[in-house]
Amino acid sequence: xxxxxxxxxxxxxxxxxIEPGATSASARPVLGPLRHYGKDEEIxxxxxxxxxxxxxxxxxxxxxxxxxxxRRQISAFHVAGDIFGIERGAEYRVTAEAVGDAMIxxxxxxxxxxxxxxxxxxxxxxxxxxxxxxxxxQEHMILLGRxxxxxxxxxxxxxxxxxxxxxxxxxxxxRSDIADYLGLTIETVSRTLTHFERKGAIELSTARxxxxxxxxxxxxxxxx
Amino acid sequence: xxxxxxxxxxxxxxxxxIEPGATSASARPVLGPLRHYGKDEEIxxxxxxxxxxxxxxxxxxxxxxxxxxxRRQISAFHVAGDIFGIERGAEYRVTAEAVGDAMIxxxxxxxxxxxxxxxxxxxxxxxxxxxxxxxxxQEHMILLGRxxxxxxxxxxxxxxxxxxxxxxxxxxxxRSDIADYLGLTIETVSRTLTHFERKGAIELSTARxxxxxxxxxxxxxxxx
DNA sequence: CGCTACTTTGATCATACTCAAGCCGAGTGG
DNA sequence: CCACTCGGCTTGAGTATGATCAAAGTAGCG
Lengths: 224, 224
Prior knowledge:
The structure is a homodimer of 224-residue chains.
Chain A: H1 4-11, E1 35-37, E2 42-44, E3 52-58, E4 61-66, E5 72-78, E6 83-84, E7 95-98, E8 102-108, H2 120-146, H3 149-164, E9 168-170, H4 175-182, H5 186-198, E10 202-204, E11 210-213, H6 216-222
Antiparallel strand pairs in A: 1-8, 2-7, 3-6, 3-8, 4-5, 4-7, 9-11, 10-11
Helix pairs in contact in A: 3-6, 4-5
Chain A binds a DNA duplex (30 and 30 nucleotides) through residues 148-149, 174-176, 184-188, 190-191, 193-194, 206-208.
């Protein structure tokens, strides 16, 4: 199966500075074939040999770490055009899973180890992605360590809105994913969203997966 | 002035996989001269043009982000041998400050932009450092988002002990720095440390800046 | 000494968690 | 077509963890 909703969402969720058409799998012979992953399917696991890089063609991917007792922290969501699975060492340090249905391209990890004989542009893109992820990680750390639940959820909504390029956000991920991304519980995420709705800052669809920003300035005041 | 205590601490705090002697400023003509920074002195500020990379020769450096109301999150501490100030864009995204007295070498940022005409080993070291920082950021996010105060402090002590290569940890940073690194308040950090001391897991010096691990397995059980 | 900065300790409080129940939409089978 | 179930989401009540406010202790340094 290949949920049309998931793909429709992803198709207008291209990240900053990357043209998905120009760098798609078909245009780059280096890339391996596109492969489909179903909801919650594992792409690679923490501790597995890091032999490949991956690039999202459609859908959304989460990368996370899990403690022995099951507590989980999602470090990032990756949307169409994003490269993930970049590692310094021989093993993946996070687990990657599809949030919904997703199409993922992959290619052999060689760029940084043998820099001479491969596509220089690709190597540069990989390095730039790593640095972008580091930037985002630094931004996310201040959210996790120093922001209140209200500020966390407001920041999350504004970031999603920016990435989605529209006033209505089709959330591809569950409350559980959002909670593990923001370092909260699902109850607190839910309560905060209804609180925003009561204040007229957002509008929740009946299915609760679509969010329309009604008062973006109000959210911006709340984000800290 | 150049406190001998700070330097003595730093001299045995070399990070994993980097020989400080072999890659010191004097051995690399690319590096600029060593410069001294005093306690809390700013090395670069968030938003400033990112024109140089920096490498710690002695002492400890913190990189942090600060919210408008003064809340601060320290994203990392850098010790001797560590490179910091690596950016993707044109501006620094974090502020870097010396924790105590420190000696810092710097070099012009050119490696990633003009990869052909510069030291390949240096470029590789810069990329490896960026990826190492990303690894640490991912590890730190699960600490910030999902660990209790007890687990955070236990993890911090074990990490410092690993970096310091000795059973006694000479903490170069204040309680305030530790709190802003772990996403806690100074009171909680202090209470947790005295709690560990009462349980016999650690031993605090009278000056409270030196910590000896008495029962490392106990801390390891607490760290998650 | 006595100031200052830092740390510890105590009492109280609030934010977000836990436990629990109920709701709603989607899918399933009678 | 309707009842049923299941998963995800919401709502509520009570609680606990860590924050806040306040004060006292301690080291370093003039």
